[in-house]
């Protein structure tokens, strides 16, 4: 039985729901998610208001003798019954939704006066942010469960899901839902941990410097995983150097007596100052110096076969899903699970029925029997390279068509990364390269410079052009890879175009 917790979003609020309840939720579409959440009864560990007052060093008016806190939020829109609301952001409050079933924590006298005039209990503190973090630290220390934080430019969602899949066969696990790793999710995920939770696996992303440091401040992971570090998310970090430093924050964020698991083949990771970490350092990869080492990697039906070497012992593995990158994800997951107490052989057995999220190199039969590889979940440069390799390795005598979109998160470094992708497409001898967006044209230009036939490189600027370009390939002799960013996929016409290509004939 899979006992994993996941998170769903409804009207700006986030709730923890046991995976086993999702089928029930799907059958109750007439309910709001908040109502369903209350029905299934998944809550934070309830805490008496007196305990909270003591921990955050506040003063409450009026006195409450038996008030139990069942929810905590810094966003007033997320207030429900028995909520502790931290007025951290000082947004204008809609007092019409505030009721006597919530308690406000504030540093502002005007909020105190307004709340009391409305009959709403209020806790006055000297510093609202200090009080908030005192609560967070208090709640986290209530639980001694293993917490694993996973970061990296690519593969962190899949690796997180693989770790969760392995552990959930045995434990009740709280895990990040899909790739919903935004910083505003930290508190809801933390509150999803209660007395029934036996482990937590959190995906930790980086948009800005300091994000990982804050993630670790919430969750205090005893184990950290770095899948790889490439070039991405430069809109927030601005430079590659800042981005790498931001990813490296996990080194100091993991418990010093804990475990850090890193990709030993990744050149950027090799250049990090890993000596800062005083705990157990574990490497995975294909190189001989790695603790967990993969050899004999091969494509087989529906996935990858490889042999894992650990401490001179050999283990045969099959992991669902194609690509060498998927082998790396599996190695990282097995290493984390093994460090958490799962035998390597058992971890491998559990991985055999792992299922990838949709749009992660998802193979589909499309219009007129064409094979579609839908990899539109994300579009970081390393994942584009990996997807091209999968396209070439799985096509087996069919025409290969790669549809690649522009990547705005690369900023000024986009040209260099686009050139690498174009060079890869040419070296793999992809039959037809289709780019989407003005900036992505550099991919095609570089591919031609590296020997690709000019007539097989097509630049599209809109959905109509894209569909017309792909129509001749919509048959059983072709394999089409779609590798487009989420931002481009938000274009309804582009999305409709891809859906038309994926639509099977009746």
Automatic annotation (TrEMBL):
Gene3D superfamilies: Mur ligase, C-terminal domain (3.90.190.20), Mur-like, catalytic domain (3.40.1190.10). Residues 362-483 form the Mur ligase C-terminal domain. Keywords: ATP-binding, Ligase, Nucleotide-binding. The keyword Ligase applies. Transmembrane segments: none annotated. GO terms for molecular function: acid-amino acid ligase activity; ATP binding. Pfam families: Mur_ligase_C (PF02875), Mur_ligase_M (PF08245). Residues 150-337 form the Mur ligase central domain. InterPro entries: Mur-like_cat_sf (IPR036565), Mur_ligase_C (IPR004101), Mur_ligase_C_dom_sf (IPR036615), Mur_ligase_cen (IPR013221), MurCDEF_CellWall_CoF430Synth (IPR051046). This is UDP-N-acetylmuramoyl-tripeptide--D-alanyl-D-alanine ligase. It comes from Bacillus taeanensis.
């Amino acid at each position: 039985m899979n006992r994993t917790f996941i998170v769903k979003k409804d009207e700006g609020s986030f709730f923890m729901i046991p995976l086993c309840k999702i089928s029930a939720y799907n059958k109750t579409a007439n309910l709001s998610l908040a109502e369903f959440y209350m029905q299934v009864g998944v809550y934070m560990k309830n805490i008496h208001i007196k305990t909270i007052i003591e921990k955050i060093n506040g003063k409450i008016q009026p006195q409450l003798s038996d008030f139990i806190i069942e929810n905590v939020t810094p966003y007033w829109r997320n207030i429900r019954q028995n909520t502790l609301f931290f007025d951290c952001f000082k947004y204008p409050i809609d007092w019409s939704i505030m009721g006597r079933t919530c308690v406000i924590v504030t540093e502002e006298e005007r909020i105190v006066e307004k709340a009391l005039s409305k009959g709403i209990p209020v806790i006055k503190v000297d510093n609202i942010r200090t009080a908030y973090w005192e609560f967070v630290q208090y709640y986290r220390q209530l639980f001694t469960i293993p917490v694993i934080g996973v970061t990296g430019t690519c593969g962190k969602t899949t690796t997180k899901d693989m770790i969760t899949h392995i552990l959930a066969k045995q434990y009740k696990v709280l895990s990040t839902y899909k790739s919903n790793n935004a910083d505003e999710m930290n508190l809801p995920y933390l509150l999803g941990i209660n007395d029934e939770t036996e482990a937590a696996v959190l995906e930790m992303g980086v948009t800005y410097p300091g994000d990982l440091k804050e993630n670790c401040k919430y969750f205090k992971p005893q184990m950290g995983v770095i899948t790889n570090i490439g070039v991405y998310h430069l809109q927030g970090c601005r430079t590659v150097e800042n981005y790498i430093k931001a990813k490296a924050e996990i080194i100091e964020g993991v418990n010093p007596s804990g475990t850090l698991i890193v990709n030993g083949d990744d050149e950027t990771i090799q250049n990090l100052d890993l000596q800062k970490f005083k705990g157990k350092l574990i490497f995975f990869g294909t190189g001989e110096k790695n603790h967990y080492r993969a050899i004999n990697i091969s494509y087989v039906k529906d996935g990858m076969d490889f042999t894992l070497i650990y401490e001179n012992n050999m283990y045969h593995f099959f992991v669902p899903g194609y690509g060498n990158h998927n082998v790396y994800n599996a190695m990282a997951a097995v290493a984390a699970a093994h460090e958490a107490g799962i035998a390597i052989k058992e971890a491998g057995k559990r991985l055999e029925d792992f299922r990838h999220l949709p749009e992660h190199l998802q193979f589909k039969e499309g219009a007129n029997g064409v094979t579609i590889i839908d990899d539109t979940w994300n579009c970081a440069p390393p994942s584009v390279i990996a997807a091209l390799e999968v396209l070439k390795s799985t096509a087996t005598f069919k025409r290969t068509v790669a549809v690649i979109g522009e990547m705005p998160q690369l900023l000024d470094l986009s040209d260099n990364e686009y050139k690498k992708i174009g060079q890869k497409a040419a070296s793999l001898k992809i039959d037809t390269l289709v780019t989407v967006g003005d900036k992505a044209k550099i991919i095609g230009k570089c591919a031609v410079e590296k020997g690709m036939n000019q007539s097989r490189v097509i630049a599209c600027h809109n959905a109509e052009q894209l569909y017309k370009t792909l129509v001749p390939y919509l048959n059983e002799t072709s394999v089409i890879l779609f590798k487009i960013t989420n931002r481009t996929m938000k274009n309804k016409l582009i999305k409709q175009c891809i859906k038309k290509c994926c639509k099977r004939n009746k």
